[in-house]
């Protein structure tokens, strides 16, 4: 029997290349901001989502907001304590993708740069995602055909004022991911970065005491970005739609790169 539109009632609808049905996705920094938005969208597109972060209570609040909340897992992890990475990785099911969304943005004029601020930026934004990925790979937790997506920042390209430590951590991540992608390719695993501009998250709110933030966001032709918009780009890189994309950095910056440069 045919429908009014001329198609058969028995016609199998094509699967969207953006579908994550049947896939298991790990999201770090999932309690708020971009990480939470990634978890919500991944679940909506059919994935089983593993939510990671430091605060188990906030992670569970995220889980309850997901589509089919009982299908998803909460796995707390403090990225500052990399001694736990090995055991933690072994406890996970096999993964089809990882969205590394956890990060910090600690800014300081260069003349006031401290070793502690530099170390904190480098530890959370660079060292931890790389060592966690190493642990996941060593534990054979990433399936062939999997995708690793690291959330960087447009600072890795434009390095605005007072961002020396932060920009260095994100630029280092971008370079490391490009190298990593060469090694993971032999296992059919892709590795890419998404470099957001200024996003309406709690992290940005914590920086609003700096007048330069308002000035810079005002330079963005399309305005302030929402976390859901960055999540859409991350999910695209996790999905089969980007199966030939690796070693890349997708800049999602509302057009701010050009006026800043």
Number of helices: 10
Proportion of residues in β-strands: 5-15%
Q: Which CATH first-tier class would you pick?
A: Alpha Beta
The poorly predicted ranges are none
- CATH fold field value: Rossmann fold
Task: Give the CATH superfamily.
Answer: NAD(P)-binding Rossmann-like Domain
The global form is globular
Rg result:
19 Å
What is the average of the pLDDT values? Answer: 90
Query: Mind describing the biggest β-sheet?
Result: 7 strands, parallel
**Total individual domains:** 1
Q: Which structural class best describes the helix and strand composition?
A: alpha/beta
User: Order of SSEs, N→C?
Assistant: EHEHEHEHEHHEHHHEH
CATH architecture: 3-Layer(aba) Sandwich
User: Level of helix content?
Assistant: 25-40%
Physical arrangement of strands within the biggest beta sheet: 3-2-1-4-5-6-7
Strand tally? 7
Ends apart, CA distance between termini: 60 Å
